[in-house]
Design brief:
Blueprint: H1 10-15, H2 28-33, E1 43-47, E2 54-60, E3 64-65, E4 70-71, H3 77-80, H4 103-108, H5 118-121, H6 126-129, E5 139-140
């Protein structure tokens, strides 16, 4: 189905590779399969100049499909969006703005995948069913007013 991330092959899910393979040793397919499809990393964030605290807004990158929570041009996102940050094993530990539910962040910190994660459920929609994704809770940058401070969330989605 268009717009929905295909679930990782059963062999990949059944192997539970994320429990034994360090992030830096994962194949590209293993790395990509860790993404739960929540869309949170595609939200604009602001950093308080006094406290350095990072806060999320409810404004999504223009490439994010707010229903599927998938990038509309994933292959070219870095060329199309100047400040799109590439996520890899070399920088995952440095990105303080990664959501607390992010599999990359959880595994980098020695944690486990949450029970709603698509690799555990076999269902790419489990992230939406669990209420973890941004589906139905964000606007695109084209729909937002010019002042991102008007869109700051009180807490992480």
């Amino acid at each position: 189905m268009a717009g929905v991330k295909p679930i990782a092959p059963k062999e990949l899910r059944d192997s539970r590779y994320w429990e034994t393979v360090p992030l830096e040793k994962m194949s590209p397919a293993q790395w990509e399969a860790l993404c739960d499809g929540c869309g949170k990393c595609c939200l604009y964030k602001l950093q308080d100049i006094d406290t350095d605290q990072i806060v999320f807004t409810n404004v999504a990158c223009r490439l994010l499909d707010c229903h599927t929570c998938r990038c509309g041009d994933y292959a070219n996102r870095h060329a199309v969006v100047d400040d799109c940050v590439g996520l890899g094993p070399e920088n995952v530990g440095e990105l303080e703005w990664l959501p607390s539910t992010c599999a990359y962040r959880l595994l980098d910190n020695g944690g486990a995948l949450p029970d709603w994660h698509p690799l555990l459920t076999g269902d790419p929609n489990s992230v939406h069913k669990a209420g973890i994704s941004v589906r139905g809770r964000v606007v695109t940058e084209d729909e937002a007013d010019d002042d991102l401070e008007n869109h700051v969330l009180d807490e992480e989605l």
